[in-house]
Write a structure and sequence with these properties.
- Helix 2 packs across helix 3.
- Helix content is 29%, strand content 27%.
- The chain contains 9 helices and 16 strands.
- The protein is globular.
- It has 2 domains: 142 residues, Quinone Oxidoreductase, Chain A, domain 1 (Alpha-Beta Complex); 140 residues, 3-Layer(aba) Sandwich (Rossmann fold), CATH 3.40.50.720.
- Strand 13, helix 6 and strand 14 form a beta-alpha-beta unit.
- It is an alpha/beta fold and 328 residues long.
- The strands form 3 sheets. Strands 3, 5, 6, 7, 8, 15 and 16 form a 7-stranded mixed sheet that branches. The protein has a 6-stranded parallel sheet with strand order 11-10-9-12-13-14, sandwiched between helices. Strands 2-1-4 form a 3-stranded antiparallel sheet.
Amino acid sequence: MGTFKAIRIDKADKGTTAALTQFDEAELMDGDVTVAVEWSTLNYKDGLAVTGKAPVVRRFPMIAGIDFAGTVAQSSHPDWKTGDRVVCNGWGMGETHLGAYAEKARVKGDWLVRLPDGMSPREAMAIGTAGYTAMLSVLALEKHGLTPNSGPVVVTGAAGGVGSVATAVLSKLGYHVIASTGRMSEADYLKGLGAAEIIDRAELTGAVKPLAKERWAGGIDSVGSTTLANLLSMTKYGGAVAACGLAAGMDLPSSVAPFILRGVCLLGIDSVMCPLPQRKLAWSRLASDLDKKKLVDITQEINLDQVIGTGAQILAGQVRGRIVVKIV
C-alpha cells in the first residue's frame, strides 16, 4: 500500500474544502477492479463538487470526478483482467464512491465498459459523461420515433459539453439542428459542429405560454427550468424533448397543455444509474456517430492541478465544449 495524487474533498465548518494532495491507497473503497486512471474530464457536476457550490458530495473524505478512462491494474471480476482498457461513468463516483480525479480508482467491475475499438482513453474522456449523456438523449429521441425527416431539433446550452456533442452527433445523423446559446459569439463554433441555425437563449427564457408556435419536432435540453418549459410549449405535435440537465434550475414552470393537446413527450435522461446494456450501446454509437475531427475542435486539455480553478469557470458559463483532464 502507498499513496497517490488525488483531488480530495473534506467537510469544513462551512461547506467543503478541495485540494490536490496525496491519498492513502488503504482508504480506497470496496471494489473488485482497481484501475490506473489515465484521463478524466470536467463536467458541470464536477464543478459543483470541487467548488462546493451545491451538496453533490455525500461522503467524506471524497475524491472528486465522475468519470475516467484507464487500464485495469488488478481484478477479481470475471469480465476484466490486467491490461484491459476501460471507461467508467457515474454510479455515484465523486458523490458516494471515491471518484476519478486520482491516479488510482477501485470500483465494481459491473460498472465498467470496455473502451471501444479505435477510441483512445483521451478521446473517451473528451466525450465523457457529457457526451455519453448527449448520446443517451439521441437514443431516447430515436426510440420515440424521431428521424431527420420529422423536422428540426433544438439543442439548448449548445456551446457546453452536452450541447456540443449533441449538436455534432445530430448533424452527422442528418438532422436540421437549431442551436440555442447565451453566447452568440460562439455562432461560428456551433456552425462548425453542424448547427444549421443559431438562436439566442433569450428566446427561451421569457414568460412561458401553455402553448406557443410550433417550432421543432424535438429537442435535447441540459438547462431545465423556464428554458425547458418554453421548449415544450414550442414542440410540434407528437414531438419529444429529452431532458438531461438543470443548469438553470430544477423547477419546471410548465403546464399539461403540450402533453394533452399536442401529444408531446418529455423524456427523462439519467446517466448515473443507467443500465449497462444501454451504456454499451451509447458508447458504441459514439464511436461510429461522432466525428473525431469535431471532437478535437471542441476539446481543451488541463492537468489535475487546474481542475479546481476550471471548475469555477464551468459554473460561470465560461467554458466552451469539453475539457479533458490528464491524470498522469
